[in-house]
Amino acid sequence: MKRTTATIACVGFLMTVLAAVPRADASSVHAAPISLVNPSPTQLLFLQAPPDRAQTLPRGAGRLTVSNSLTNTLLVEEGGPATGIIDMEMLRTTVDFNYGLSDRFELNLSMPLAMSGSGILDHMILDVEQAFGNARKVREEESPGQYHFDIRRGGRRIIGSDDRATGPGDLAVRLKALLLHEGESTPALATRLGLKLPTGRRSRSLGSGGTDVGLGLLLEKHFGPVAAFLNADVIFPGSIDDPEVDTKTFYQAMFGLSYPFNDAWSAGAQVAYTSRPFSGTGLTMLDRRIVDLLLGVTYQRPGGFFVQAGTMEDIIDSVDAGADITFFLNLGWHF
Q1: Within 10 Å of residue 95's Cβ, how many Cβ atoms?
Q2: Got the DSSP string for 48-95?
Q3: Where are the alpha helices (DSSP H) in the chain?
Q4: Pick from 205, 116, 88, 113: which is nearest to 167 by CA?
Q5: pTM
Q6: Residues 6 or more apart from 270 whose CB is under 8 A from it?
Q7: Can you tell me the distance from the alpha carbon of 308 to that of 301, in angstroms, rounded to the nearest whole number?
Q8: For a pLDDT cut of 90, what percent of the chain falls above it?
Q9: Residue 60 — pLDDT band, cuts 50, 70, 90?
Q10: Distance separating alpha carbons of residues 137 and 125, to the nearest angstrom
Q11: Where are the beta strands (DSSP E) in 104-225?
């Protein structure tokens, strides 16, 4: 009886605390997931579905975001008809512009700029892995500070670049439509349509060389101050213009939570699932699905300026298929 009473008291106290936390305004970034796509170099060739909320910006409102991410990737597979090595870091800056066309339609333009190289994180990652006793053999055998991006089939390169690549990626255009506003017991529901145009150079692996189309559904529901998000997207990639590479329809899903501590600070956690656009390559780094965990914090100032920072890492058994770790810093402005 005492244990039951104590439990009820704790639950009541927690509900009181949650009720005291201000709920994020609809135009606030505290009420939205952090927009960061899967950072694996091979996945970045294609259209992706960035985490987003269902609610649209009000008519005439806008948001400009400059997203900066640093990603370290080490993947090695040898001994078969297909071989691959990705040993690199990529600094990626994406400029996103969102605009409320009406109270139910929102336009997004997204343009990335990528710079790949040998990087600076190799020693740090190895030290952390060894400290926790789970260092990968390929990481221990790696020569830090190297750059390799070379995936071959039958001895011929199908994806990769001899030199460190810098340049624009593929331009993405998205339109989001709000179908249902959030009710007392029902979530907000929206759909979105995405189009990727081949503006990145295929020869430098800055783009796939094809046009991709995506279609998705977005759900959003608030539980007191906590905002929950669910995204589900299907993407139809264009041809990668190589007879050795077949592409197929792939899927992405994201579940996220956001919690505002006050009007200035919030924290978010997101789990994302990504199937792969490649078909039967025989390489884990191309064929295996990827599961990522993102943890981040947001600081928003009066006037609409905001900063987001955090990390994303592959989890479960995605270690041989995705990027090792990503650190991000986003700067933005609501207007």
Answers
A1: 13
A2: ------SSPPPTT-EEEEEEEEEEEEEEEE-SSSEEEEEEEEEEEEEE
A3: 2-20, 122-131, 137-140, 284-287
A4: 113
A5: 0.87
A6: 33, 34, 51, 229, 254, 255, 256, 257, 293, 294
A7: 12
A8: 67
A9: very high
A10: 13
A11: 105-117, 148-153, 156-160, 166-168, 171-180, 188-197, 212-223
Contacts of 141 (CB under 8 A, 6+ apart): none
Hey, what are 196's tokens?
């990727």
- Going from the C-alpha of 134 to that of each of 164, 175, 212, the distances in angstroms are 30, 43, 38
Give per-residue pLDDT as tens, 135-150. 888 888 888 888 999 9
Is the per-residue pLDDT at 257 higher than 80?
yes
The yes-or-no verdict on residue 309 having pLDDT over 70 is yes
Distances, alpha carbon 62 to alpha carbons 179, 201, 217, in Å: 20, 30, 22
Structure tokens at 105: 């339609």
Distance CA 91, CA 113 (A): 8
C-beta neighbour count of 160 within 10 angstroms: 19
108-129 burial: b if 16+ Cβ within 10 Å, else e: bebbbbbebeebebbeebbeee
| Domains of the chain, CATH where assigned | 29-334 (2.40.160.40)
SS3 212: strand
* Distance of alpha carbon 267 from alpha carbon 182, whole angstroms: 22
- Three-class SS state of 288: coil
Residue 83 Cα to chain centre, angstroms: 26
CA–CA dist 243, 283 (Å, integer): 17
Q: Is 131 exposed, middle or buried (0-12, 13-18, 19+ CB in 10 A)?
A: exposed
CA-nearest of 71, 52, 63 to 256 is 52
